[in-house]
């Protein structure tokens, strides 16, 4: 198990290094002068030159990459010129919103999707299976921003049970969680629809295996066959989708964060791109890449726990 984890960790570190090169190179080839864009087209050449020197843009690109990479190793992501704040502080503030939102959304989608997928697979071809998968297809087709607006209209404007937007901070945990409920549901339902269909497909394939027929022939209860034997062996594709969904929920929620006016990582990236604050864009993007690699490592470890054959590469 230790060698398996070490191998996956080494692959993740190499991937992160290559990703840092790609991120830096992509931002380098973007047209326009970041310093002039930040100061405006009417700024004097002397002011632009001063800002370029402060941002390090007067240095060769390889030297700037090495400086940036050295900062990543030591945990220094630089300082935002728009916010006059260290990038790591901006990330920490926004992560306090995005991470709980992603975790709540993932919990809700998993709690809904897996029972629905198992239920549909156990009744494959029947009316209940058709209804469940038809509902899931509708969930996939519905845009999450439209669902978010609908939830705001019903639960915030109509019933006035939950706030329509904003985030009060974690000084009052109850109010903070209430502010995240509607965004979490908006994100969770479409993801649950996808996960339910994957769970159903994996379960149907597993239920056709010989060991399931053997378990049934031995007289094991149907519930035990489904939840203890079939589901565990169907978890590999489900874990893959869960890892991808968590990565998406952590960084790909720009629209939902704008609908609910949440100060998360998605909005931070969007604002930094608009303001051409390359230090913030580089730092946040590489941290998100690192988080995706870490999530994939966790998923790989879960693979090995679910299927011991993967630990030896068989």
TrEMBL record:
Gene3D superfamilies: MetI-like (1.10.3720.10). Keywords: Cell membrane, Membrane, Transmembrane, Transmembrane helix, Transport. Its main location: membrane. The keyword Cell inner membrane does not apply. The chain crosses the membrane at residues 95-119, 131-156, 176-196, 234-256, 284-306. CDD domains: TM_PBP2. The keyword Transmembrane applies. It is found in: Cell membrane. It comes from the Bacteria. Residues 95-299 form the ABC transmembrane type-1 domain. It is a multi-pass membrane protein. Belongs to the binding-protein-dependent transport system permease family. This is ABC transporter permease. It comes from Chelativorans composti.
